[in-house]
């Protein structure tokens, strides 16, 4: 819940920017489904499966403990996957991960002219 509270303001601002740019798709769709997040990352990002699964669950709002329980591994393992994924993507925070993903999702779902 704390993670959601921390990122809610950013999410609203980013979604507002997308709406102002005249996007015809709903960027809110980008974060509504873990399946959508996982598929987008898997198709577009060149990273190992576990790293992409961890990133998807971070974006979906799960805590480190929640991700560990969901994937059946320890919390330290999740921290390692997160650290490796952030390094691979050249980012250092959840906020940067969110920006990276929304850009990825938006470019993948951009309406074709």
Can you describe what's shown?
It is built from six helices and no strands. The chain has 113 residues and is mainly α. Helix 1 (2-20) packs parallel to helix 6, helix 2 packs across helix 6 (94-108) and helix 3 (49-60) crosses helix 5. The longest helix has 19 residues, at 2-20. The chain is globular, with a radius of gyration of 14 Å. The chain starts with a helix and ends in a 5-residue tail after the last helix.
- Alpha-beta content class: mainly alpha
The total of beta strands comes to: 0
Shape estimate: globular
Cα distance spanning the termini: 39 Å
How would a textbook summarize the main sheet? none
Strand and helix map with partners:
Elements: H1 2-20, H2 34-44, H3 49-60, H4 64-71, H5 75-89, H6 94-108
Quick summary:
The protein is mainly alpha-helical and 113 residues long.
Keywords:
6 helices; 71% helix; 113 residues; mainly alpha
